[in-house]
Design a protein that fits this description.
Layout (H helix, E strand, L loop, with lengths): L3 H4 L4 H12 L1 H4 L4 H8 L3 H10 L5 H17 L4 H13 L2 H16 L2 E5 L3 H15 L4 E4 L14 E7 L5 H12 L3 E6 L5 H5 L2 E4 L6 E2 L3 E2 L4 H13 L1
Parallel strand pairs: 1-2, 1-3, 3-4, 4-5
Antiparallel strand pairs: 6-7
Helix pairs in contact: 4-5, 9-12
Amino acid sequence: MFSYEEIQKYNETDIRIYKYIVSDIDKIQYMTIRELAKELQVSTSTILRFCNKNNFDGYSEFKEALKKEITLQATCPPMEDLQELSDFFTRANSSAFEEKLLFAIDVLRKADLIIFIGMGSSGTLAKYGARYFSNMGHFAVGLEDALYPIDSFRWKNTVVIAFSESGETERLIEAINQFKKKKCCVLSITNSPLSTLAKLSDWNFSYNLNTKRINGGYNGTTQVPVIFVIEALAKRI
């Protein structure tokens, strides 16, 4: 019930409301607008604006739609760890998703060189992205860290695709700033459209899933949406 097009219009507060609703969808149907506002520490007018952004006339209509969504899920409930992915692919199966890719597709088609870059697990995704693009006939390279002499970079008409779940990795952001000084077009895939990396980019795709920290702080957030977008772009250029 939350389309990709609608989520792209969310501000920071909207994203917080959205994540709370998705995480506690069964609980929301029994909450009044005042109870929900109190739980999220926002005003009732903020909740109403959120409902309006999602094409509902008011909170009652929004809750009715939630009940229908719960009933639909009950007929064939996904496993808990698949729920977020199910919601993501529902949003991606839309014209809005295709429209979102258009700018990236256009610049990638014109690029003389494509560089994928990330750090940690995002560095592994960068290597995968370069390999997949190469498999599809598009020359690309993948950098698993940001410690490269970008100041000496001379290649023109380059597109850089950066990966970071948080969008706040300091060393990666420094590298992106250097690439931008070299007039490279920067595309990024992050979890949040409000992150520093997203704001620095010429184009950003954000998948808006709940961040999961496990085993003492390691990032366990699923990266399936990132792989999906990589492959979607490669197949369309």
